[in-house]
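Tutorial, part two.
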Amino acid sequence: MSLPLVFHPDYSPPLPAGHRFPMLKYRLLHEHLRETLPEARYHTPEDAGLDCIALAHERSYIERFLAGALSPREERQLGLPWSEALVRRTLRAVGGSLLTAELALHHGLACNLAGGTHHAHWAHPAGFCVFNDLAVMARTLQARGEASRILILDCDVHQGDGTARILAEEPELITVSLHGADNFPFDKACSDWDLPLASGTGDAEYLRQLDGLLSYLLALYQPDLVLYDGGVDVHAEDALGKLALSDAGIAARDWHVFEQCLGRDIPVACVIGGGYHPDHARLARRHAILEHTAMQAWRAFGLS
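Running the prediction step on this input gives:
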């Protein structure tokens, strides 16, 4: 038995040449991990059910997206061209996050090789995000009675504004966001706990802030599950980030999360979040830091 990873080829649908979103990174990440973590257990997700998605999104919005009937304003907010392949990708990726959460509850730790679509709101898309998989996971698990108190730890460089707004009235679904203070979205939401970081924040200060926050919040809430968005757009080389973490800093960040959670017997479900770089293969390797660190934690904590 080894670390569960979740992937489907639908995660990387084609985009027009030159599009700024690095959709290819999901396929390249899977290929890289097949070579470098051959002992991992790979799981294939089904599409997310519409009833699950409707726990976090307005039905009419879901139907408009599925039918290719988004308004021009919504299409601009999304930033991705609609296609049937994008619909398949969206449903499959949310289904992958749901499967990841189930696997984490069963085994202690699991990773989706996509996910982290935290800008999607109740009734509209935003920032390359159609449906908010973090909110869907949290509400679905709660509705099924599989977890009562869930902490969403969002370490993407951009604030998880959609997640915060969707779950604003849910006291047992705790939203936590560490993000660049001077980055998108510029109209910030109010998470349960926000930690805005100054542009240029590097490894040492980031890790100091994260460690203190985790120690406090995990003891305070004692969640049944942590949903972890391990975005790599905090990296100094990221095209859309303004922080200054190194590869080693990202690995240390991920390790701090796993050590603090697993050391308290709190399972962790991971999604990869954002990361932007013109060299998609290099970007995929950077995203793979999450899975490699998860494998180290899997072994260190004797999970099975």
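The mean pLDDT is 98. In part three we will examine how such features are distributed along the chain.
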